[in-house]
Amino acid sequence: QLQLQESGPGLVRPSETLSLTCSVSGGSISSSAFHWAWIRQPPGKGLEWIGNIYYSGTTYYSPSLKSRVTISLDTSKNQFSLKLSSVTAADTALYYCATMKYESSGFSFDYWGLGTLVTVSS
Amino acid sequence: SYELTQPPSVSVSPGQTARITCSGDALPKQNAYWYQQKPGQASVLVIYKDSKRPSGIPERFSGSSSGTTVTLTISGVRAEDEADYYCQSAHSSGTYPVFGGGTKLTVL
Question: Which of A13, A21, A79, B90 is the most exposed place for a label (fewest CB within 10 A)?
């Protein structure tokens, strides 16, 4: 059973870069079975897909965040990471990592972390 | 931007049937997925490809599709089903996933 756990600073200053890591256990991020995704949820609001990365290193980003997002793999640590630059208060959210399947029939998110709250404030 | 629209809240008594809808123009062409979200717990996929149930999900959870609306039905609702439910599909371009705004299911 795959398990994912997010980690990183809970407070980020405006205009700085948010950096989070997702540690994966019970499976390898080098597997072709899944994409590795980030999703966020602002307080009291719905879910928003941020982007995902495949084991090959190919990345896909939300059009609305593409200019500020970088997702990367660290196969030596079985982790993947999110960087979001030039943050504002609007980036305050619960950030989740998850596995994503992409098939001709659509996208699905099968395993989720518990999420980590990131607040953007001076 | 493409949107999936859900009612903010649905309330039912235990044992009754809860129906949560999700509307979007691209739903006739794109599959829908449903997730259950409870505080402090990992989100769970409860329905995939409109109406299929993953292993381990109780039979009281079912999904259906009609035109631009998909529906999550929970029959014989239990107190433990109280949660936020999110629908998810693909953008009309088919190139990335989108989520609905979520529905809070309250078991009275």
Answer: A13
Task: Report the C-alpha gap between A55 and A61 in whole angstroms.
Answer: 15
Chain B interface disruption, residue of A50, A105, A110, A116, most B CBs within 10 A? A105
pLDDT by residue for chain B (108 residues), tens digit each? 668 999 999 999 999 999 999 999 989 999 999 999 999 999 999 999 999 999 999 999 999 999 999 999 999 999 999 999 999 999 988 889 999 999 999 999
The token duo for B78 is: 């239990």
8 Å CB contact between B93 and B33: no
Q: Which of B96, B98, B103, B104 to mutate: most A Cβ within 10 Å?
A: B96
